[in-house]
Amino acid sequence: MKTVRFLFILMVIGFCLYTGCTEQQQYAKLKQICVEHAGREEVFKAAEDTLGRMNFDIAKQDEETGYIKTRPLRAAQSFEFWRSDNVGKFNTAEANLHTIRRTVELTVMQKKGYICIACDVQVQRLSLSGYGKQRGSETYERFSDRRILRSELKLDAAKKQWINLGSDKQLGALILRRIEEQLGKQKEKDL
Q1: Cα distance between residue 182 and residue 7, in whole Å
Q2: Is 28 a member of any domain?
Q3: Nearest to 119, CA basis, from 162, 180, 160
Q4: Which residue, among 91, 106, 101, has the nearest Cα to 49 in the 3D structure?
Q5: Number of domains within the chain
Q6: 155 lies in which domain range?
Q7: What is the distance, to the nearest Å, from the Cα of residue 125 to the centroid of all Cα atoms in its chain?
Q8: Res. 81 pLDDT band, cuts 50 70 90
Q9: What contacts 74, CB < 8 A, 6 or more positions away?
Q10: What are phi and psi of 10, to 5 degrees?
Q11: What is the largest CA-CA distance in the chain?
């Protein structure tokens, strides 16, 4: 019995450490990075690899205009330890409490012999407007069927909407750092 209690306490402590009850690394909020001695193709390849490793799917990519946009990615829950799209305590807690999604936009531009990459991450939260406004009996009839044992929530597409929450500068800075690291690894391979 003592072993079971000890293991339970150890699991609770581990969960608290993982979900942000301890001090986490602070991420400076970068707006852009500029690299020297890198071609546009290299930068786009590094950006694709970085976004792919972070589970983002690219929706639009135009190398001529220097633009990459991803499809919205639902935020990771705390048990999805292999994902890295929640940066910081607040973002981790928010993703566990709400349905959050993020879209990444990268802009690649030429500036005075350097190639600069800017990153903007837009965050949205799912809103189910209209679902809490029924009387109790209407809500019961909508979400349950007396013939079956389990209830299902069927969402009406017209009442489902995404609310813009602004930019996630911490995730944007992390993406830029990873692109920079990826470009450094590519340079090491070339040498």
Answers
A1: 40
A2: no
A3: 180
A4: 106
A5: 1
A6: 33-190
A7: 12
A8: confident
A9: 99, 100, 101
A10: -65, -40
A11: 71
Dist. CA 168–CA 123, nearest whole Å = 6
At 161, the amino acid letter reads Q
**What integer pLDDT is reported at residue 74 of this predicted model?**
87
Residue range 91-128, pLDDT digits in tens: 888 878 888 899 999 999 888 888 889 999 999 988 87
Quick check: 124 and 116 in contact, CB under 8 A? no
| Alpha-carbon gap, residue 1 to 110, rounded angstroms | 65
Best CA proximity match to 86, nearest among 67, 68, 101: 101
- How far apart CA 159 and CA 91 sit, in angstroms, is 25
pLDDT of 146 strictly over 60:
no
Residue pair 54/38 in contact by the 8 Å Cβ criterion: no
Q: How far is CA 2 from the centre of its chain?
A: 40
In this prediction, residue 41 carries a pLDDT of 86
Confirm whether 11 is domain-assigned.
no
